[in-house]
Amino acid sequence: MTYAYLKTNIQQIRKAIDSVKRPWTHPVTLIGVTKTYEADIINESIAYGIQAIGENKVQEIMRKYDAVAEGVAWHLIGHLQTNKVKYIIDKVDLIQSVDSEKLAMEIEKRAAAIHKIQDILIQINVAGEDQKAGIAPEDLPALLELISKLPHIRVQGLMNIGLFTDDEALLRSHFKKMRMLFETLPDYGYSNVTATHLSMGMSGDFELAIEEGATMVRVGTSIYGKRNYS
User: Fold this and answer.
1) Which of 31, 75, 191, 211 has the most CB atoms less than 10 A away?
2) Helix, strand, coil: what percent of the chain each, to 5?
3) How do residues 48-67 score in pLDDT, each as one tens digit?
4) Which among 83, 85, 81, 79 is positioned nearest to 107, based on CA atoms?
5) pLDDT in the model for residue 1
6) Who's near 204: CB < 8 A, 6+ residues apart?
């Protein structure tokens, strides 16, 4: 089976990313969101230039890990339960969805056991949506203070799952809030907290997110096509 459409889609998305006027110069990382897609499709996208993939579920990482090409960066972008950290701590390069002190403590425990410094992002629920994970913006200082004492965790920035809305002004306002929080990270003065990655924006709004400061965008459907959940 041929997946030539992947090459076209990836090229078009990268062209769109490159054309967006952004507030800073560091490059934007394109993360291929691979939930429901099998290893053959993922490997084709890697061949066409995808260097980081994002999975929502621990079991999907475990199922696909050995079949996916070596060298790609694995990101856990979905909600992570503390009892499942042990299954992926040796596999993921970046956990984007840290949203509690309990989860941070478990990541520290499991990373220490394998002598690893685990890179993470803190997920912020900037819109205050009950159905979404993430901490409230006002809870960020306390979580950072706790993590500053955990030697096997390195906070590299923040992540946000945007609203499912066509209201561009509302989306933009939330992305702006995320960037403001992101830019405060160095002010805390913690050695294991940096403002390196701001992950926000998906297939429908990644260009807007980049305009407002995203350094990572998570794109699935626009690369791989419509998902089949059956």
Assistant:
1) 75
2) 40, 20, 40
3) 999 999 999 999 999 999 99
4) 85
5) 55
6) none
Q: Which region, left, alpha or beta, applies to residue 136 given φ > 0 means left and ψ of -120 to 50 means alpha? A: beta
Residue type, 61: I
Enumerate residues 6+ apart whose C-beta is below 8 A from 227.
35, 36, 37, 220, 221
pLDDT score at 198? 97
Question: How many other CB atoms are there within 10 angstroms of residue 53's CB atom?
Answer: 26
Output the CA–CA distances (angstroms, integers) from residue 128 to 21, 23, 106, 124, 135, in the order listed.
Answer: 28, 26, 25, 9, 9
| pTM assigned to the model | 0.95
Rg (CA), the chain: 17
Q: Class assignment of domain 4-224?
A: alpha beta
The answer to whether 135 and 103 are in contact (CB under 8 A) is no
The string of pLDDT tens digits covering residues 18-52 is 999 988 888 899 999 999 999 999 999 999 999 99
The amino acid present at 6, given as its one-letter code, is L
> How many residues in total does the chain contain?
230
Determine the pLDDT at residue 78.
96
